[in-house]
Amino acid sequence: MPGVTPDSHVSLVDAPLLADLMPWSVAPLRLGRAWPMAPDPASLKARWTAFVRAAGADREALLEPSRARTLRTAVAQLPGRDTATDDLTHAEGPCPEPVRVLHAPFDEQWLIPDHRLIDMARPELWRVADESQLFLVEQGFVTGAGGPAVLACAILPEGRPLAGRPGRIRPLYRRPGGLEPNVTPGLLTELSGRFGHEVGARDLLAWVLAAARPSPQGPRVPLPDDADVWTSGTALGERILWLLRRGRDGDRPKLPGGRRPYVRAPLPGSPTDLIHDREEEALLICDGRISPVPAEAWDFQVSGVRVIEQWFAGRIAAAEPGTLAAIRPGSWPQSWTSELLEIVTVLTLLAELRPLQAELITASTPLLAMADLKRAGILPPAPATRRPASVLDHHEEGPGGQFALI
Fold it and tell me: Residue 224 falls within a domain, yes or no?
């Protein structure tokens, strides 16, 4: 059951906050309008075409202006993106190439990477997003809800919570190229000395994925004073990370014993209903049928919200007619079915790991207390570690083609 919680005898009061172990964080992105993001890139290109073909008041209405973004708002390029910087009254030409982002837990979508369309794009995240980067994404805290406190991804996360207070996005590295770990100074050295082997930033991320526990103040991370527990936890965390990345750095996840989910009856072109048959282990999508879908996958929750239900709802939700968001596929794409099958597999395998996560820290596990880390001069982290590093080693184009000064 994905809502399994840690041993109730283990107190989290003295466990450090993730915010103190990985000090630099960024708030979730805020789009300000729904249409620049979609589950498929073709819809985004069609929306952009409709937008640039409109003029005057029609274009302004299609933009859905906000206080942060109007047709005349001047903004710099997003770091690493080659897009125009004149205002949107002059926008023309093809759509900027959409990029893959993590819209919500287990929900990868596509985004038009044009700063003029996004209220708060968090450029500091774009500057460090490269093939070496990993992001920890805190999940919304909901009292009594089940599910992981933290998830991870290798693509840029929107950071949108399914429920509860929004968490923070914590890059593993403060600079591109996997440079300068976003870890409070001295922590990795302290852990390396205690465990008798080198502990790297990636090891800490893996431990966080395996051991982080939700709390009203943000995720807390009990740190063991036991090398064997640490080794077990980091191995478990690496397995979780591999599943969260859907095996994209190797073989794709598969259920054991050939229990791979299949489409047993074709999905309709315009599905409306989603039901799980526990006895038959099947997803019923109108007249369509996918099985096996174990109850563990269907019940997997983040912040108390079923992941599969949320993912499906985001693809069938009605959009207001006449808006750009209403431009979408005319029928359910095969690629969405493939993604759903993959999510079922990943959630099933993650659910199987939840008991191991719950057993990782027990009442008898020796833990490092915050007092230990304070005596070692590790906590509290220096204020500068909570701010982004200065990573600009090249010019970024500002509004109207001027160079941005950072």
Answer: yes
Residue whose entry in the numeric block shows the structure tokens 């498929």: 40
pLDDT, tens digit (0-9, with 9 covering 90-100), for 126-176:
999 999 999 999 999 999 888 999 999 999 999 988 998 889 999 999 999
- Measure the CA–CA gap between 376 and 57, rounded to whole angstroms: 62
Alpha helices in 64-214 (DSSP H): 123-128, 187-195, 201-211
Task: Kindly state whether residue 263 falls inside one of the protein's structural domains.
Answer: no
What's the distance, CA 65 to chain centroid? 26
Maximum Cα–Cα distance across the chain: 68
99 within some domain: yes
Say if 339 falls within a structural domain: no
DSSP, res 70: -
How much is the CA Rg of the chain, to the nearest whole Å?
Answer: 22
In the beta sheet, which residues pair with residue 99? 111
Q: What are the CA-CA distances from residue 287 to residues 145, 204, 235, 266, 267 (Å)?
A: 32, 46, 42, 8, 7
| Contacts (Cβ under 8 Å, ≥6 apart) of 106 | 302, 307, 311, 343, 346, 347
Structure tokens at 77: 């390029």
CB atoms within 10 A of CB 10: 16
The pTM is what? 0.93
**Domains identified in the chain, total number:** 1
Structure tokens at 378: 């590790």
- Give residue 210's domain range: 18-254+364-401
